[in-house]
Amino acid sequence: MGCIRVLLCLIFPPLAVFDQGCGSIVITTILTICGWVPGCIATLIILNGSKK
């Protein structure tokens, strides 16, 4: 996970998982609407679990 991704996670979490698929974008968008912290945590989990 690069520094750019971490900064995107802190600024706008759904943009950080843009290339992970539609499901990831939807999940992080919903969690970000509910609160910034859950969206950021979900984004970090998704990005750490990716195999790229």
Commentary on this structure:
The structure is a single chain. This protein is an all-alpha fold. It has one domain. It is built from four helices and no strands. α1 (3-11) packs antiparallel against α4 (36-49) and α3 packs antiparallel against α4 (36-49). The protein is globular, with a radius of gyration of 9 Å. The relative contact order is 0.20.
What's the layout of helices and strands?
Blueprint lengths: L2 H9 L1 H4 L5 H13 L1 H14 L3
Structural Rg: 9 Å
How many DSSP H or I helices? 4
Low-confidence stretches: none
Structural class: mainly alpha
Based on DSSP secondary structure assignment, what is the total number of beta strands? 0
Summarize the structure in short:
This protein has 52 residues and is mainly alpha-helical. It has helices at residues 3-11, 13-16, 22-34, 36-49. It has one domain (7-49).
List keywords for this structure.
single chain; 52 residues; mainly alpha; 4 helices
